[in-house]
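Obj.: predict assembly geometry.
Materials: sequence records (below).
Method: joint structure prediction, all chains together.
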Amino acid sequence: MKLRMLKTQSLPKVLTPIFLVLLLTGALLAINFLASSYVQRVITILGINIVFVVSLNLLNGFTGVFSLGQVGFMAIGAYTAAILTLPLNLKVVSLPNLPSWLAGVQLSFVPALLIGAVVSTLVALVIGLSLMRLGGSYVSVATMGFLVIVHVVLINWDSLTRGARTFAGVPPYTTLWWAWGWAALTVYVVWRLVHSSYGRSMRAVRDNEIAAQMLGINIMRTRLLAFCTSAFLAGVAGALWAHYITSFSPEAFYFTETFSLIMMLVIGGMGSISGSILGTVAITLLSEALRNAERGANLGFIKIPPIYGASQILTAAAFIAVIIYHPQGLLGGREFNFRRLLISSHRRGKGKN
Amino acid sequence: MTTFGNLLQQLINAISMGSSYALMAIGLAMVFGILRLINFAHGDLIMVGSYTVLFLQLAGAPFWVAALVGIAATTLAGLIMERVAYRPIRGAPAIDMLLTSFAVGIFLENVAILIFTPISRAFPAPAVMTQVLQYGALRISSLDLITTGVTFISLVLLTLFVTHTKVGISMRAVSEDSLGARLTGINVNTVIVAAFAIGSMLAGVSGLLWSARIGKVDPLMGFYPGLKAFIAAVIGGMGSLSGAVLGAYILGFLEVLFQGLLPASLAPFRDAFVFLALIVLLLFRPNGILGRPDTEKI
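Observations (raw structure tokens):
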């Protein structure tokens, strides 16, 4: 992939984001007032997934550090925020062994979520100082090691996490609006970052480490910036998820979740923000549809038995097919562009950009 | 028990664990050396073999017949995996191959859940594998001895294979320098198929021993030993066969060591410490203990 020059556009550049925000607000209003609670649920989860996958793209797609451990940061964000917002009367019962400075704390949603994200970022900073020195497959291996460590710690740190048992009673603060507000903010932040000089450094580091180094780009700092930003947003996604699902266990943040989120990223096309959104929408809806089909159905005259595991089999097979036949994903590193649709004829006259 | 006896007991545990991991790690290292593919689905081959052995025994076959067919089934599964999923993406970026193997693993696990349900079943190991031999204060399970013995024999056979047969020598050549090997007329396809066959066969053998050790069979049983074998291969240096064996024994010793040294409150965190050790090692030797550094041409 080549570094792509930024195109400077005059008026339409401002219009696109405004148009998108209006469109999103309208769609959310419609969903909020017209859609069934099931549809609202799927759309909310979709928003949270977009926060995670777009931030994953910053690290794995744009910077070329293929991390398999970001779900670990999601877990840290989820558990930290959930411990902080858990009502005091529940805290006494379900977490009786909390350290005293934590036992009397009950925060509202936003500070808890932000603290969760900051804790994720701090952990990322500490381990990133060493992990970001590794390259290629080794960084994938090491970040996977991080995921296992987080999992083992969650399962065994009984006084803080209830261990392998379900962590329940988290207040359901996350709404459709919170999820999509963060999704919009994530897209905005990642978009601005990717199109800044930091973003160009990230792509340079991804495409050719040695050449980037010769240009005076600090590889470690560039990777660390992507790693920490991604961890912060993963922490946010975790906190949002925790306050939507309200009861969960460490199993929720392990390889199954990792694989399904990475699948969204790869199918959308790494290195494309709109691709990530498209991939997330496609896989979230597909797995939801398959999950319903899996439960079986009673069509009156014929009864389809439930086939557990079938949805995973189909998505795994589909994923292999995508990598074999269309490895660049849906958008393959390009962005879906409204402006380009509008001015493509004009541009075509001038030749390629 | 005397301190010396205790030490000896722990040593036997470490060697036995290391042997289990070694048989698995060799297959991973072999495939990585030739294809640069980290095969996450390798552990799930264990599951294929164990279910085969289980059902053959339930159907009335004697253990040794079931075991042989089970190993054959594992080998076949490995070959099908290579043909269907890995051959079409040969030469793709390492990440694409890694993700494919992830997907293959999830595919296999869920097919097993679909066919056999997620509930685990008891694995009928023959009596000779489940005895405990008592030497004074020392207690050795026969399975530990069998595991160590089988691993030793397999390693000797494997060494003879890679040093004395044409395919084995080609295998080492391809692993050393793929392009150079092709220029001398080595059929890379044959080598890759052989690597998958041997690796899967060893996984089948270790799967038998593993299911006898844990005494049950379930669709996700391969995940954990697969992960451990993977760490072993990385510690030793991905792609190096002797490295994989070395890494497996180091891992076995580390686990026993952490088990013994960690205070009771930290003992459940053993696996976290094992992975921490792996990450620390990668920082100082990114290519493992015996791995050669990848040189990058500008």
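Conclusions so far: Chain B touches chain A through 44 residues (CB under 8 Å).
To do: check interface contacts against the pulldown list.
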